[in-house]
Amino acid sequence: MDETNNKEQENKKNKKKNKLPLWQVILLILLIIGIIISSFYMAYEYKNQNDEKELAYTQLIENINKNEVEKIEMTTGSNSITVTLKGEGEEKERQKTVLVPSLQAFIELVQEKVDKEGLEIDLSQKSINPALRIADTVFSMLPTILLIALIVMMFKMQGLGGDNGKVYGGEENKSTNVKFDDVAGLDEEKGELIEIVDFLKKPKAYLDMGAKIPKGILLYGKPGTGKTLIAKAIAGEAGVPFISMSGSEFIEMFAGLGASRVRKLFEKAKKMAPCIIFIDEIDAIGSRRTSSSGAETENNQTLNQLLVEMDGFDSTETIIVLAATNRPEMLDKALLRPGRFDRQITIPAPDLNGREEILKLHAKNKKFESDIKFKDIAGDTAGFTGAELANVLNEAAIIATRNKHKKISNTDIEDAVKKITVGLEKHNRVISDKDKKLTAYHEAGHAIVSKFLETQTDVKEVSIIPRGLAGGYTMYKTNEDKYYVSKTELLEKMVALMGGRAAEKLALNEISTGASNDIEVATGIAKDMLTVYGMSDSLGPISLKVNDPYELQIFGEGVTDEVGNQIRILIDNAYVTAQKILSEHMDILDAVAQTLLEKEKITTEEFEEFFK
Ligand code: ADP
Ligand code: ZN
User: Fold this and answer.
1) Partner of 341 for a Cys bridge, out of 22, 216, 264, 575, CB 3.0 to 4.6 A?
2) What is the mean pLDDT of residues 320-333?
3) pLDDT in the model for residue 387
4) Separation CA 607–CA 612 (nearest Å)
5) Cα(298)–Cα(302) distance, integer angstroms
6) Atom of ligand 1 nearest to the CA of 280
7) Domains in the chain and their CATH numbers?
8) pLDDT at 448 over 80
9) Which atom of ligand 1 is nearest to the CA of 223?
């Protein structure tokens, strides 16, 4: 039952937490366990041999001289021999292993003893299963192998041997294939960036002229406004490689990793210059440096490395670093100094014309009915980003296919817009008659109150079909793109928001939780009016937006009480106004609510009929 003309559906980019993939973690643990087990095993073996089986070389010579040796077995390539001493008992128990310094010398020595002194020593070659031998050798080397594997893995994860930054283009295909023509709207921004393309194409001309070319350009704008697209287009137009990386990829588990990635990224870029480096979500690394510990410190190292790299290459190196963020206020000021990201370009959400152009561009490979008017769709989608508009057409194509239409129709597109704005219609949600009645009056209240307010746009559709979380909705026409909103408009917006609850109370003498979102939005508006826009007479045109409530103290003790009081007054007034409008038009309220209960949905034309 909430206002649904608010199309600011922030496409929250799912911030991938850059943790190690599970398999790497498992492998790491297995490696470490392997090393521990095998080294324990080796130590055990060694101890065993030492304790009972091993004989010192000098001791052996003595045994030989005393003629106490029965048999000597050797294996080729090994300095370890098996000696059987004379005596009672099992042969196994009389066997010892001896490590001889030089096998050759030892054989000669024994041979001489046998020949000259007539000692009886059975000198034999031990035959050993070659497979067993290899296994034995491998096993004895196991800890070493595992240790090497571990080190290699750590290095890989440090990104030293790994891939840093995706490169589009490169040797074979030197561009991204994206051109400025693929970026609709944004004419001013493209105009500003065209000189970068020119510089990348013929840097010498600029440098000879003594021109200083920007190293870093920051693109501000919410997700989906085409920042990546325009960065790719610059590379594509200039025909240079496009190396991209996301800020969140720099934030990793191991300390120093982010910094090393930054270093590698720039090393790579220097090899490929002229080229473009694109760092998406730069706020992930470039947020204000703090002196805290842990992840913050890691962040600082990465940011510092980025600053070092930006300062490190000079403008003859024809590397241009483009970075994107939707939270410019978060960025460390050091990033914005001259020689770093000293140029900032805002990429706004498209205006009416821009939206039409983007729709037309993305419509190219789709089939539409001949009566499609992209201008009208653009009119209905104020606030949509390029990505959302592309999504609308894609949704429309899906809906058209599902409805077995030959081509995409106007209604398919309208449905797609609705779907993206408020989520799918949930026809099958079971609603009690009582709930339906409440919703009908609530939505009728919003619509009728708006009708009597000068600044509120016309109602486009009223419905009591649940959508997403809302039990019903009132959709408004969006007729113009506005940069500024007047105080009257804000006040009336609050009245329209209160219309839902006022209708519930008037018609059914009951209020419900259905108005919770309306109340939340209205309270937010009131708060902003007082603390951000300075629209209150009693508080004056001052900004009371503070990070820390203690900062408010500079305005005097009572200021928080005053803000609270004023918010209450604004909301109360809005509610009273809404109630007044509705009580003067109870007949219309009943009629609209009744029609809603019958038809579930009312269009503009049908709604206007009630006022004739
Ligand atoms: P950002 O980097 O600002 O989050 P992207 O550049 O990734 O946004 O945009 C996502 C997609 O949205 C693009 O691949 C493109 O299909 C579409 N898009 C966004 N802006 C435009 C535009 N101005 N013209 C054409 N398509 C756009
Ligand atoms: Zn509502």
Assistant:
1) 216
2) 85
3) 92
4) 10
5) 6
6) 2
7) 52-126 (3.30.720.210), 166-346 (3.40.50.300), 352-421 (1.10.8.60), 433-609 (1.20.58.760)
8) yes
9) 4
